[in-house]
C-alpha cells in the first residue's frame, strides 16, 4: 500500500469492487495531487465508471480504501461523500426538470461541502452561471436548454458546493466537434483556476490537452500510468484500447 | 349547457340536497331510522340480526294498519343507513336520521362500540337509545352516563357464566372431566368473554389446559384445534366470532376432536351453522325455548325478509320492537320521552315471554343454546325463573 | 409543490415576499371564516363540517409526506389508531391535553421505526407495506390485550361539545398548513423538491434522502396520531376493528388525489366536494353506498386524473394562451 | 424497400422531425449522421411505430402504408428495430431472447434456419444459450440484440447507435458483422455517431440536423465532404 | 378483570414439552396445506401484477365471486362444487378480459410512467372492488356463507387432515405446475414472460403488448376465481371479505418477487409454514403479525423479493 503524501487531495489504495463473482475493479491504487487534473481512460467495461462511483460513494467497495485529504471516506455513502467535498457530473446529463436553471445550480450549494442559503446562495449560484456562460438563463426552464447548456448547468451545480475534488464522468460525451471545443475550454478554465479534477473520457484529444496525468484501465486493473503522451504511446495500451490492427 | 354552468349547477345541487330533504316532512308515517353496517366486517352479522327484525316488525305493524296513535293510525317507514362499519359514519347517520330525515324513532345501532360511539348523539337530540346489539359489563355505568340508554341485552359475564354453569353441571354430574381447553378470537367480544371466563372456570373447579387467542381473519384453524386436542381436554370452549365459529367447527370435525362438550360463542345461533354437518349437540351463545310461537316467528321471518333469523339476537330484537310498539300505542303520540318513560318501568308480554328493563337493562336472556335436531334449544338462561330448559346432551359424534 | 415557476429566484429562504404575506393574510381570513361555522350551523350540518375539517387535516398531513416524495402511504389508519389507543389508555390517568401530545409522540416513534426500516424500499413495496402496517399494529394490539388480560374496547370519556371538536380539528388543520408552508420554505423543502425531481442527483448534492423522507414521514404521521387523540372522545369507545380501519387510509388518499397533490391547499379542494358527495350518496341511496362509492372512485381516477388543482391549472394555462394541454407533463 | 415521405414528429410544441424523407432497399447499408438531439432516434422510432407516431407524412414498406400501424404489426412487414437501449429481455436467457425474435408469424417457419445463421454470425452466443442476458457484457448484449432482430427474418434492419458504449476493438468487429449481414441480402439503416467507421461500410448516407435532412449522398462522397469532416469527423 | 389468569403460561408450555417428531411433521403438513391455499390466492395476482403490471386490488372480490359461484352451484344442484369450475373459470376469464380492455387500457395509454400507472390502477381497482362488493351484497346478501364441502378427514402419516384442504392442495399443485410449464415451455408463455420482463421491447418482436397483457390479466382473474371455488369448500366468506384475500395475495406476490411465478409458489409455502409454525409453537394470536414481520424482514434484506429481479 503506497504511503500517502501530505499534499495528496485524494488517494485510493487497493480499491476492489466485485459484482457477484466478477471483479469490475481490482486492486486499484492511485493518488491525486491538489490542483491536478487526472484522466482515467480505458476501453468499455474496463471499470472507469465503477471507480468514479466508488469515489463518489454511489457504490461501496468490496475492499480497499479511499481518502480525501487523509480523511477516510470509504463506504460512507454518496451524500456524505458530497458533504466532505467531492462533487460529480453524470455520464448522461441529469437535470432537475421541474426546477429553473438557477434552482438547478443552487441545488448543489445547499447540502454539500459548502452550505449556503437564502440571498447568499442565490448570488453565488448566479455567479456560477455567469462563470459557465449562462449568465442570463437563470429563470429558464431546463428543458428549454440545448444539450451543451444542460451540461454547463450540471457543471455549475457540481461547482456550487465548492468541491475539493471534482469528478467529470464522460462530461464531453455526445457533444459535436464545435461544442466539444467549448467544453474543453470550460474545463481548461477550471484547471487554470486550480480545481482538482478526475476526468473519465473517450475523447482522446481532450485527454491530451487537459490532463496532467493519465491512468489507463483494462478489465478492472490499472495497466499504465503517466503523462497522456507517455501512456498513449504505450503498446499495451493501444492493443487493449484500440484493437490489434492499430497496434 | 356549457360545461362550467353544468359544474356550477351540479355543485349547487350537491350542497343543497341534504337540506332540501329536511324540508319535506311526512306526517302520515312513523319514521324509524335504522343505522347499521351493510358493508365492512360487521355487515354479515347485521344482515342477519340487525336489519331484518325491523323489516319484519314494520311489515307486520303495517299489515294491521299501522301504529295506533291518538290522531289516527300511522304506517311505519323504515329508513336504513349504512355505517360502513365506521363509527364516524354511524355518528353522522344518526345525526342525519335525527336532523335531516327527522325520524320519529331511531333504533339502537349495531354492535357495542357503535352504540357507545353514537350515545352522545342520541342524547343530544333527545332520542332514547333502545338497543339489543350491545353486550358489555359496563351496562350500569353507561346507563348512568346516558339516561336515555336502554339495553335490551345482558352482560358479557352473564354469557360466560351461563356457558360455564352448563359445563359445571356436566362435570358435577360426572358426565365430563374437569379439563377445559379455551380459545378466543383476538377481538372485542371474544377477548371480553375470555377474560370474564377465566376466573369463572377456576371457581367452577375446572383446569384450563389450553388457553390461546387467534387473530380475526385466520385462514386455517387446524393448528389451534390440533394443539387444543393435544392437551386432552374434556370440554372445548371457543369464545369465537362467526367466521371462526365456522372455521373451528370444520377443523374440529376433521380432527374428530374428542371432547364431550363443545361450545362456540357468536354465530353458533345462525341457522347456517345448524345446517353444517357435525353441528349436532354443539353448544353456543343464545338459544331459544322451543314454542309454537317461536317456530311461527322463524317462518314469518324467512317469508318476509328472505333471511333466516338467528337463534340469539333475532327473537329478542323482535321482542324489543314489540315493547316499542306497545309503548308507542300506549302513549298515543310520537313524544319520545313519554315513550321511553313508559317502557322504563313496565312489564311487557313479548315473543320471549314477559320482560322488563329494571335499571334500563333487560332482566332476562337465554345464555346458552344447543343444536338438537335442527333447532337451537336454550339450555341455560338468566332471569327466566322456572323455565324448562332442554336437557343438555353430550357431544358424541362429528358426523 | 413541485410545479416549476419560471421565476428567477430560489424559492424559500428567510425573507417573506409580499406575495407570501398576501397569501398568509387570505389564509388567516379563510381560517377565521371557517372558525365561525359552528356559530352559524348546528346539527347535521355541523357533523358534516366536522367531517370536512377532520378529513382536511388527514389529507393535508398525508400530502406533507406523499406529495413531495411520491410515496403513496396507505397507513393513515395505523397512526390514527395509535393516537386513539394512547388516548383511550391514558384517559383516566393523565389530563387530556397531555394525551394529545403523548399520541403525537407515540405516532412519531412508530413512524421513525417504520420509516427507517422501509423508506429505503421503493414505490410499490412501500405502498403494500404501509397498507399492511395498520393490520400489523392491530394484530399486535389485540394480541397484547389478550396476553395482558385487558378489555378489548376502551372507553374514552372526555366531555367535549361538538363545536369544540370542530375548533380543535380546525386549529390542527391550520397548524398542518403552517408546518407545510414552513417546510416549503425551508432547506428540507428544497431538498424534497430536488429528491422529487431526481433522487440520484439529490444524494450527490449531499442530501441525506433517507433522513429527509423519514423526517417528513414522522411529521405527517404525528399529525395523523394527533387527529386520533382529538377524535377519540367523540367516538367514546375504541376497539381495534374500527380504530385501524384500512378504508380510512384509502379515503384520505382518494380525497387528496381528487384535490391534487401539487399544492398544499390541493387536498382541501378534494375533501369538501368528496365529503358532500359522500353525504349525498348516503342520504339518497343508503342501500347502495358501497357500489356508488366505487363508481365515484372510478370516475375520479378517469375523469380528473390530476385532481382539481390540475384541472384549474390547465384552465389557467389555457387562458394565459400558453401551453397545449398535456405538454405540462412532458 | 422502406421509404419515409415527409415524416414529421412533434413533442408537444417542440418539433423533433420535420418533413424527413429517406429510403433504404434490401442489400444496402444506409447511414444517418447527426449530432445529439438532431432527431435520429426519433426518426427510427417513428418508422418502427414505437411510442412516438409520425404526426405527418407516410411510411411505406414495399409500397404498403405502415405509418400508423402498431409496432408489432410493423415487425411482420419485415422491419426490425434494435433501439438504443438494445431492446433485449435482460432477465431471459440468450436462447429465449433469440426464440422471441422468431415470434413474428413471418419468421416462425424459418426459425431453425435463422437460428443457425445467427449463431454463425455470433459464435459466442452458441457457447452459452442458457446464460441470462443480464449477466453479459455490453458487446455480448449487442450481439443478442442484433441476433434477436435477425431472427425475425427482416428485410430491413434499423439500428440505433449500435456502437454506443462499445470499445474501439468491439466496434470494428461490429461493423465487420454488419457488412456480412448486408451481404446476406438484408438492408441496414444505421443511425450513428461514429461517422468514420459507419461511412466506411455504408453505401449511402443522410445528414440530419435539427430535425431536417440537410444532406444526402453516397457514403464515399460524404466522407470527403468538408462540412461532414468538420462536423462529424472532428478533422 | 385486569388480573391475568394465573397458571395459564405453565399449562401452555406443557403442550410444548411434549413436542415430538410426529407433531413437527404435523406442522409441515398443515403448513404445506395452508401454503397450497395461499398459492391459490396469490397465483392470479402474480399474473396480473407480474405480467400485466396491474396491481389489482379487486382481486379478492373476484375470488369471492368465484366462491359464491361455487356455493350457488352446490346449493342448486347438490353436485360437487368442483364442477362449477366449468362455468366459473370461463366467466371470470371473460370478465377480467373486459375489465382490462375497458378500464385498464385507458390508464395504460395515458400514464407516462410505471409509477403513475401503479397509483392509477391501485385507485381504480380499489374503486372497482367497492363496485363488486356492492353488486355482490345486492345479489347474495351480506351474510356469512359456509357450506363445508368434503369436510371429512383423510389420514396422512396417521394424522387427520381435512379432505377439502387436501383436494384443494392437489388442485393448487396441478395449477401451479401447469402454469409454470405453460409459461416456460410454450411460445405463448414465453411471450407473456417477455412482456413481463420488458414490455417496450415486446412490441419489437411482434408481440401485441395490450393483447398479451389482457390475456395475462384475464388468465389471472380466471385462476383467482378457480381459487375461490376451491377455497369456498372450507372457508367462511361474505361479500366484503375479499380484502383479506387481496392483502394476503399482495404480501405473497411481493414476498416471492414480482414477475416470477416460482417466487409466488415458494412464498406461499414459506408463509403457510411460517404461520403454522408460529401458531403451533409460539401463539396462534401472533400468526398474522408473524406474516407481516416476515414480509417486513424480506423487504429489508431483499427488497426485490425472494425470486425478484433487482430494479436498476
Report on this structure:
The complex is a heteropentamer of chains A (247), B (399), C (330), D (235) and E (312). In chain B, 45% of the residues lie in helices and 20% in strands. By secondary structure, chain B is α/β, with parallel strands linked by helices. In chain B, the strands form four sheets. In chain B, strands 8-7-9-10-11-14-15 form a seven-stranded mixed sheet, with helices on both faces. In chain B, strands 2-3-1-4 form a four-stranded mixed sheet, with helices on both faces. Chain D has one domain: 3-Layer(aba) Sandwich (Rossmann fold), CATH 3.40.50.300. Chain D has eleven helices and ten strands. Chain D has helices spanning 40-48, 71-76, 94-101, 105-108, 111-121, 123-127, 138-151, 168-183, 195-201, 219-224, 226-233; strands spanning 2-11, 14-24, 29-34, 56-61, 64-65, 79-82, 156-160, 187-192, 204-209, 212-218. In chain D, the strands form two sheets. Chain D has a six-stranded mixed sheet with strand order 6-7-8-3-9-10, sandwiched between helices. A four-stranded antiparallel sheet of chain D has the order 2-1-4-5, covered by helices on one side. Chain D is globular, with a radius of gyration of 17 Å. The mean pLDDT of chain D is 85. Helices cover 72% and strands 3% of the residues of chain E. A two-stranded antiparallel sheet of chain E has the order 1-2. In chain E, helix 2 packs across helix 6, helix 2 packs antiparallel against helix 9 (209-231) and helix 4 packs antiparallel against helix 5 (114-140). With 312 residues, chain E is an all-alpha fold. Chain E has helices at residues 8-17, 21-51, 59-77, 85-110, 114-140, 163-185, 187-197, 199-202, 209-231, 242-256, 261-282, 287-301; strands spanning 153-156, 159-162. Chains B and E meet through helix 2, helix 7, strand 8, helix 8 and helix 9 of B and helix 1, helix 2, helix 5, strand 2 and helix 11 of E.
Which keywords apply here?
heteropentamer; B: 399 residues; Rossmann fold; 2 domains; 7-stranded mixed sheet; 4-stranded mixed sheet; elongated; D: 235 residues; alpha/beta; 6-stranded mixed sheet; 4-stranded antiparallel sheet; 11 helices
Kindly state the percentage of residues in helix of chain C.
over 70%
What pattern of helices and strands is seen along the backbone of chain A? EEEHEEHEHHHEHEHEEHH
Number of helical elements of chain A: 9
Distance between the termini of chain C: 17 Å
Q: Which structural class do you get from the secondary structure elements of chain C?
A: mainly alpha
Radius of gyration of chain C, in angstroms, nearest whole number:
20 Å
- Tell me about the biggest sheet of chain C? 2 strands, antiparallel
Largest sheet of chain A, described in full?
A: 6 strands, mixed
Count of the separate structural domains of chain A: 2
Mean pLDDT of chain C: 82
Strand percentage of chain C lies at: under 5%
By CATH, the topology of the largest domain in chain A is Rossmann fold
> What percent of residues of chain A are in strands?
15-25%
Oligomer: heteropentamer
Q: Give me the side-by-side strand order of the main sheet of chain A.
A: 6-7-8-3-9-10
Amino acid at each position: 500500500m503506497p504511503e500517502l503524501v501530505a499534499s495528496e487531495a485524494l488517494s485510493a489504495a487497493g480499491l476492489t469492487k466485485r459484482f457477484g463473482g466478477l471483479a469490475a475493479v481490482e486492486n486499484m491504487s492511485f493518488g491525486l495531487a491538489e490542483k491536478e487534473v487526472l484522466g482515467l481512460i480505458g476501453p468499455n467495461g474496463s471499470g472507469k465508471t465503477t471507480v468514479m462511483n466508488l469515489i463518489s460513494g454511489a457504490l461501496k467497495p468490496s475492499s480497499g480504501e479511499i481518502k480525501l485529504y487523509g480523511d477516510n471516506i470509504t463506504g460512507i455513502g454518496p451524500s456524505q461523500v458530497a458533504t466532505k467535498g467531492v462533487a460529480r457530473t453524470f455520464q448522461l446529463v441529469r437535470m432537475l426538470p421541474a426546477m429553473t436553471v438557477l434552482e438547478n445550480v443552487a441545488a448543489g450549494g445547499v447540502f454539500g461541502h459548502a452550505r449556503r442559503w437564502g440571498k447568499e446562495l442565490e448570488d453565488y449560484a448566479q455567479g456560477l452561471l455567469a462563470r459557465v456562460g449562462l449568465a442570463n438563463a437563470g429563470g429558464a426552464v431546463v428543458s428549454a436548454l440545448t444539450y451543451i447548456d444542460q451540461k454547463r448547468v450540471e457543471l455549475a451545480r457540481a461547482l456550487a458546493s465548492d468541491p475539493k475534488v471534482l469528478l467529470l464522468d464522460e462530461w464531453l460525451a455526445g457533444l459535436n466537434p464545435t461544442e466539444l471545443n467549448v467544453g474543453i475550454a470550460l474545463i481548461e478554465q477550471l484547471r487554470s483556476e486550480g480545481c482538482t479534477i478526475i476526468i473519465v473520457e473517450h475523447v482522446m484529444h481532450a485527454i491530451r490537452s487537459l490532463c496532467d496525468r493519465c491512468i489507463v484501465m483494462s478489465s478492472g486493473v490499472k495497466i499504465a500510468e503517466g503523462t497522456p503522451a507517455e501512456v498513449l504511446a504505450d503498446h499495451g495500451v493501444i492493443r487493449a484500447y484500440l484493437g490489434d490492427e492499430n497496434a | 349547457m356549457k360545461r362550467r354552468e353544468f359544474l356550477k349547477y351540479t355543485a349547487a345541487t350537491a350542497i343543497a340536497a341534504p337540506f332540501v330533504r329536511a324540508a319535506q316532512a311526512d306526517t302520515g308515517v312513523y319514521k324509524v331510522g335504522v343505522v347499521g353496517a351493510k358493508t365492512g366486517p360487521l355487515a354479515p352479522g347485521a344482515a342477519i340480526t340487525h336489519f331484518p327484525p325491523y323489516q319484519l316488525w314494520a311489515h307486520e305493524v303495517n299489515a294491521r294498519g299501522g301504529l295506533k296513535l291518538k290522531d289516527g293510525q300511522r304506517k311505519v317507514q323504515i329508513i336504513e343507513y349504512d355505517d360502513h362499519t365506521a363509527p364516524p359514519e354511524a355518528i353522522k347517520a344518526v345525526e342525519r336520521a335525527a336532523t335531516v330525515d327527522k325520524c320519529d324513532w331511531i333504533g339502537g345501532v349495531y354492535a357495542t362500540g357503535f352504540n357507545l360511539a353514537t350515545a352522545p348523539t342520541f342524547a343530544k337530540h333527545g332520542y332514547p337509545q333502545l338497543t339489543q346489539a350491545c353486550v358489555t359489563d359496563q351496562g350500569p355505568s353507561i346507563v348512568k352516563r346516558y339516561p336515555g340508554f336502554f339495553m335490551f341485552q345482558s352482560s358479557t359475564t352473564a354469557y360466560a357464566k351461563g356457558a360455564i354453569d352448563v359445563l359445571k353441571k356436566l362435570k358435577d354430574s360426572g358426565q365430563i372431566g374437569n379439563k377445559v381447553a379455551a380459545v378466543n378470537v383476538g377481538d372485542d367480544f371474544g377477548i371480553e368473554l375470555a377474560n370474564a371466563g377465566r376466573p369463572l372456570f377456576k371457581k367452577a373447579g375446572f383446569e384450563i389446559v389450553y388457553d390461546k387467542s387467534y387473530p380475526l381473519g385466520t385462514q386455517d384453524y387446524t393448528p389451534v384445534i390440533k394443539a387444543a386436542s393435544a392437551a386432552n381436554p374434556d370440554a372445548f370452549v371457543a369464545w369465537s366470532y362467526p367466521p371462526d365459529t365456522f372455521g373451528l367447527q370444520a377443523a374440529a370435525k376433521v380432527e374428530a376432536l374428542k371432547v364431550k362438550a363443545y361450545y362456540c360463542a357468536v354465530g353458533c345461533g345462525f341457522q347456517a351453522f345448524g345446517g353444517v354437518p357435525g353441528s349436532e349437540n354443539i353448544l353456543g351463545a343464545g338459544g331459544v325455548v322451543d314454542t309454537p310461537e317461536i317456530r311461527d316467528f322463524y317462518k314469518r321471518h324467512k317469508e318476509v325478509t328472505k333471511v333466516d333469523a338467528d337463534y340469539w339476537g333475532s327473537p329478542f330484537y323482535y321482542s324489543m320492537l314489540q315493547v316499542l310498539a306497545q309503548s308507542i300505542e300506549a302513549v298515543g303520540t310520537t313524544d319520545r320521552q313519554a315513550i321511553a318513560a313508559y317502557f322504563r318501568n313496565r312489564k311487557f308480554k313479548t315473543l320471549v315471554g314477559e320482560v322488563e328493563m329494571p335499571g334500563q337493562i333487560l332482566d332476562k336472556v337465554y345464555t346458552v343454546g344447543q343444536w338438537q335436531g335442527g333447532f337451537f334449544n336454550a339450555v341455560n338462561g338468566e332471569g327466566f325463573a322456572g323455565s324448562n330448559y332442554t336437557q343438555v346432551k353430550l357431544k358424541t359424534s362429528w358426523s | 409543490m413541485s410545479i416549476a415557476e419560471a421565476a428567477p429566484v430560489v424559492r424559500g429562504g428567510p425573507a417573506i415576499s409580499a406575495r407570501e404575506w398576501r397569501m398568509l393574510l387570505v389564509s388567516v381570513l379563510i381560517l377565521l371564516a371557517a372558525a365561525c361555522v359552528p356559530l352559524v350551523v348546528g346539527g347535521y350540518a355541523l357533523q358534516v363540517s366536522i367531517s370536512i375539517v377532520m378529513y382536511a387535516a388527514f389529507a393535508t398531513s398525508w400530502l406533507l409526506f406523499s406529495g413531495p416524495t411520491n410515496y403513496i402511504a396507505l397507513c393513515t389508519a395505523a397512526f390514527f389508531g395509535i393516537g386513539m389507543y394512547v388516548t383511550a389508555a391514558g384517559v383516566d390517568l393523565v389530563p387530556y391535553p397531555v394525551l394529545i401530545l403523548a399520541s403525537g409522540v407515540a405516532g412519531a416513534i412508530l413512524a421513525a421505526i417504520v420509516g427507517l426500516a422501509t423508506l429505503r424500499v421503493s414505490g410499490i413495496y412501500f405502498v403494500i407495506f404501509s397498507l399492511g402496517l395498520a393490520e400489523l399494529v392491530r394484530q399486535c394490539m389485540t394480541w397484547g390485550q389478550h396476553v395482558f388480560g385487558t378489555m378489548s374496547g376502551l372507553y374514552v370519556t372526555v366531555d367535549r361539545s361538538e363545536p369544540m371538536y370542530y375548533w380543535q380539528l380546525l386549529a390542527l388543520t391550520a397548524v398542518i398548513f403552517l408546518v407545510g408552508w414552513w417546510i416549503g420554505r425551508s432547506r428540507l423543502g428544497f431538498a424534497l423538491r430536488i429528491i422529487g425531481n431526481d433522487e440520484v442527483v439529490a444524494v450527490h448534492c449531499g442530501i441525506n434522502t433517507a433522513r429527509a423522507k423519514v423526517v417528513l414521514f414522522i411529521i405527517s404521521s404525528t399529525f395523523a396520531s394527533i387527529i386520533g387523540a382529538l377524535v377519540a372522545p367523540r367516538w367514546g369507545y375504541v376497539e381495534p376493528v374500527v380504530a385501524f380501519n384500512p378504508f380510512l387510509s384509502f379515503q384520505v388518499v382518494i380525497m387528496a388525489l381528487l384535490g391534487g397533490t401539487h399544492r398544499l391547499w390541493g387536498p382541501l379542494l378534494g375533501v369538501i366536494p368528496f365529503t358532500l358527495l359522500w353525504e349525498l350518496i348516503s342520504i339518497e341511496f343508503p342501500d347502495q353506498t358501497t357500489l356508488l362509492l366505487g363508481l365515484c372512485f372510478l370516475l375520479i381516477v378517469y375523469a380528473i386524473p390530476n385532481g382539481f388543482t390540475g384541472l384549474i391549472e390547465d384552465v389557467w394555462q389555457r387562458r394565459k394562451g400558453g401551453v397545449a394541454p398535456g405538454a405540462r407533463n412532458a | 424497400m422502406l421509404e419515409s415521405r415527409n415524416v414529421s414528429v412533434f413533442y408537444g410544441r417542440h418539433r423533433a422531425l420535420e418533413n424527413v424523407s429517406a429510403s433504404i432497399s434490401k442489400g444496402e447499408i444506409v447511414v444517418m449522421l447527426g449530432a445529439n438531439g438532431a432527431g435520429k432516434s426519433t426518426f427510427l422510432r417513428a418508422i418502427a411505430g414505437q411510442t412516438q407516431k409520425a404526426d405527418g407524412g407516410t411510411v411505406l414498406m414495399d409500397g404498403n402504408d405502415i405509418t400508423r400501424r402498431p409496432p408489432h404489426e410493423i415487425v411482420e412487414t419485415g422491419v426490425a428495430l434494435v433501439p438504443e437501449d438494445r431492446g433485449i429481455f435482460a432477465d431471459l436467457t440468450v436462447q429465449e431472447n433469440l426464440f422471441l425474435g422468431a415470434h413474428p408469424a413471418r419468421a416462425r417457419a424459418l426459425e431453425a434456419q435463422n437460428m443457425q445463421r445467427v449463431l454463425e454470425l455470433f459464435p459466442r452466443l452458441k457457447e452459452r444459450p442458457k446464460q441470462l442476458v443480464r449477466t453479459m457484457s455490453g458487446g455480448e448484449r449487442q450481439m443478442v440484440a442484433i441476433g434477436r432482430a435477425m431472427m425475425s427474418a427482416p428485410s430491413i434492419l434499423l439500428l440505433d447507435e449500435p456502437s454506443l458504449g462499445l470499445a474501439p476493438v468491439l466496434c470494428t468487429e461490429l461493423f465487420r458483422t454488419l457488412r456480412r449481414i448486408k451481404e446476406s441480402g438484408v438492408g441496414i439503416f444505421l443511425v450513428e455517431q461514429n461517422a468514420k467507421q459507419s461511412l466506411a461500410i455504408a453505401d449511402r448516407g443522410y445528414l440530419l440536423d435539427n430535425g431536417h435532412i440537410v444532406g444526402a449522398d453516397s457514403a464515399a462522397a460524404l466522407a470527403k465532404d468538408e462540412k461532414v469532416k468538420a462536423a462529424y469527423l472532428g478533422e | 378483570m385486569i388480573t391475568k389468569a394465573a397458571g395459564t403460561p405453565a399449562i401452555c408450555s406443557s403442550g410444548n414439552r411434549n413436542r415430538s417428531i410426529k407433531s413437527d411433521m404435523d406442522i409441515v403438513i398443515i403448513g404445506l396445506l395452508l401454503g397450497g391455499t395461499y398459492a391459490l390466492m396469490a397465483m392470479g395476482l402474480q399474473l396480473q401484477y407480474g405480467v400485466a403490471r396491474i396491481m389489482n386490488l379487486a382481486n379478492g372480490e373476484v375470488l369471492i365471486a368465484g366462491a359464491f359461484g361455487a356455493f350457488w352451484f352446490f346449493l342448486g344442484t347438490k353436485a360437487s362444487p368442483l364442477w362449477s369450475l366449468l362455468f366459473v373459470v370461463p366467466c371470470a376469464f371473460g370478465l377480467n378480459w373486459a375489465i382490462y380492455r375497458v378500464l385498464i387500457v385507458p390508464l395504460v395509454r395515458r400514464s407516462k410512467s410505471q409509477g403513475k400507472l401503479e397509483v392509477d390502477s391501485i385507485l381504480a381497482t380499489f374503486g372497482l372492488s367497492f363496485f363488486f362488493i356492492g353488486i355482490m351484497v345486492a345479489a347474495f346478501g351480506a351474510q356469512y356463507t359456509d357450506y363445508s364441502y368434503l369436510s371429512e378427514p383423510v389420514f396422512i402419516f396417521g394424522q387427520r387432515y381435512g379432505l377439502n384442504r387436501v383436494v384443494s392442495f392437489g388442485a393448487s399443485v396441478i395449477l401451479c405446475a401447469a402454469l409454470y410449464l405453460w409459461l416456460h415451455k410454450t411460445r405463448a408463455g414465453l411471450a407473456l414472460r417477455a412482456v413481463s420482463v420488458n414490455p417496450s421491447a415486446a412490441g419489437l418482436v411482434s408481440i401485441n403488448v395490450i393483447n398479451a397483457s389482457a390475456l395475462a390479466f384475464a388468465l389471472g382473474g380466471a385462476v383467482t376465481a378457480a381459487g375461490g371455488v376451491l377455497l369456498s369448500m372450507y372457508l367462511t366468506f361474505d361479500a366484503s371479505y375479499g380484502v383479506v384475500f387481496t392483502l394476503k395475495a399482495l404480501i405473497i406476490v411481493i414476498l416471492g418477487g414480482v414477475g416470477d411465478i416460482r417466487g409466488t409458489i415458494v412464498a406461499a409455502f414459506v408463509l403457510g409454514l411460517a404461520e403454522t409454525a408460529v401458531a403451533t409453537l409460539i401463539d396462534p394470536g401472533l400468526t398474522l403479525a408473524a406474516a407481516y414481520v416476515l414480509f417486513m424482514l424480506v423487504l429489508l434484506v431483499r427488497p426485490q423479493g425472494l425470486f425478484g429481479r433487482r430494479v436498476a
